[in-house]
Amino acid sequence: MATVQSTKPLTARTVEVMKPSDKNKSDTGENIGLRVTCGTTGVKAFFYRYTSPFIKKLAQMKIGSFPDTSLAEARLKLQELKKIRRQGRCPSTEAKERQKKEAIVQE
C-alpha cells in the first residue's frame, strides 16, 4: 500500500508537536530524504533515507535527535550526506568505518 506524501515542507513546530502515535514525517523539495520519527518514548529522531550505491537497496542513517539537533541543523547535515551520496559513496558505510577507526585509536 502506497503512502501519500505531504507536499508541505517540515517545520520546527511540526517536529515539536509530534506524538508517538504519529506516522513518520518526511521533508520535501531539496530536503527529500530527510525523515523524522517519534518513538514510543516520545524521542524524535532525524534520519536520511537513500538508495545505497553499493547494494542498490534502501538505506537509512540517523542524523540526530530533536531537540539536540534542530531541523535546520538536520537539513545542513542532510546536504553534506547528499553530497557524499552524489559522489558515489555511501554515507552510512563511511560513518561506520570512521567509528571503527576512532574505537581503535581510543584503545
Low-pLDDT segments: none
CATH superfamily: Integrase, DNA-binding domain
How many separate domains make up the residues? 1
Element-level helix/strand string: HEEEEHH
Q: State the helical fraction.
A: 25-40%
Structure commentary:
The longest helix is centred in the C-terminal third of the chain and has 16 residues, at 71-86. The protein is globular and about 40 Å long. The protein has a 4-stranded antiparallel β-sheet with strand order 1-2-3-4. The chain has 107 residues and is α+β, with helices and mostly antiparallel strands. Helices cover 35% and strands 22% of the residues. The chain starts with 11 loop residues before the first helix and ends with a helix. It has one domain (12-106): Integrase, DNA-binding domain (Double Stranded RNA Binding Domain, 2-Layer Sandwich). The chain contains 3 helices and 4 strands, in the order αββββαα.
List keywords for this structure.
single chain, 107 residues, alpha+beta, Double Stranded RNA Binding Domain, four-stranded antiparallel sheet, 4 strands
Short précis:
With 107 residues, the protein is α+β, with helices and mostly antiparallel strands. Helix content is 35%, strand content 22%.
